[in-house]
Amino acid sequence: MGAEFDNNRKILPSIAMPEFCEALTGQASPNGRWIAIQINCEAGGYIQVLDFTSGEVLNLGVNNSREGQFLEWITSEDELLILIHGLLSNEVYKVNMLTQVVERLDVPENVYDLTMSPSRQRIIYSTTQGIGFGSETWLANVDGTNARRIFDEPEHLVIFPRWAPDETALAYIRLQDSSTPFVTGELLLADHDGSNSTVLSTIDAGHGYYPTWSPDSRFLAFVKRENPNDELANIEADKLISNVYVLDVQVKMIKNTSGFSETLVEQPIWSPDGKQLAFGVKGSGKTGLWQFDLPTNNLQQVVNSDILGAPLWLTNPKSIEDSK
């Protein structure tokens, strides 16, 4: 299941999945103890959390069965945010994996995305009335008070808002509100409060890939779709052609770090020291797990395998795991 850059392999317990399900993303907690696995199925999605120290798969403490969505780990290290999609309403919960304490956040029932600031003082969440109604995005205190609207998008959805670790800037994706499953969106950068938004680049917006900040808040990595005019890629997930790009926020320069053609490059994950990116690649004889080193601009294949899940870094910057 896992691999280390020194060519030693670490085998972790498998995550049991029903038929027609796949592990979409895996994210390690800041302290490296927990691994949250987002599993998507034809009928919905759910979350399992692996205790890396014991190998146990743990219950989140809420009934998320087949409609749960992992949002993010928060900076207390043992807590994560999840979104539960209900028939009539959605709910966001904060779950402490050590104590199993579950707390529901005070946000509207039509919420579909939420992020918490690294300082745990503020939240940003987006709401919608349904397909074709656009979205509104709100900034509030962490307890839901003093909410104010920062984005009003009658024709678009705002997804994956992400504060920089130092909270000086905010990145997010904007995409056309439609029933098309796999679309090209826009990557935007704003001030910490959502003001002064600027479009930086096009970005893949339909496969669940999110913009991710380097630990020092200088770089922003994201997946860019390279075949935006391919109509078949709008409806079939595996027709995506993509690469990982990195934005230097200080100088507003964007670099294609993977540089492949006719391949599907997946979600990039930063190493804890911010010097490397790891991502999965599919197609054109490049299938496997790859690492890009920012200081040297060196790109190398770490694992050559047709059976890979989402990569994730542990707290040791030389160690990477595959969440499948």
Structure description:
By secondary structure, the protein is mostly beta strands. It has strands at residues 2-4, 21-28, 34-41, 44-51, 57-58, 68-73, 79-85, 90-96, 102-104, 111-116, 122-127, 135-141, 148-153, 156-163, 169-176, 184-191, 198-204, 212-213, 219-225, 242-248, 253-256, 264-265, 269-270, 276-282, 288-293, 298-303, 311-313, 319-322. Strands 22, 23, 24, 25 and 26 form a five-stranded antiparallel beta sheet that branches. Strands 2-3-4-5 form a four-stranded antiparallel beta sheet, with no helix packed on it. Strand 11 and strand 12 form a beta hairpin.
- Shape annotation: globular
Number of strands: 28
Give the class-level CATH name.
Mainly Beta
Q: How large, in whole angstroms, is the Cα Rg? A: 19 Å
Q: How many H/I helical runs?
A: 0
What is the number of domains? 1
**CATH architecture annotation:** 6 Propeller
Strand composition percent: over 45%
What is the overall pLDDT average?
88
Order of helices and strands: EEEEEEEEEEEEEEEEEEEEEEEEEEEE
Please mark out the parts with pLDDT under 50 across 5 or more consecutive residues, or reply none.
Answer: 1-9
Terminal Cα span: 6 Å
Full CATH superfamily name: TolB, C-terminal domain
Main beta sheet: 5 strands, antiparallel
CATH fold type: Neuraminidase
Kindly name the structural category: mainly beta
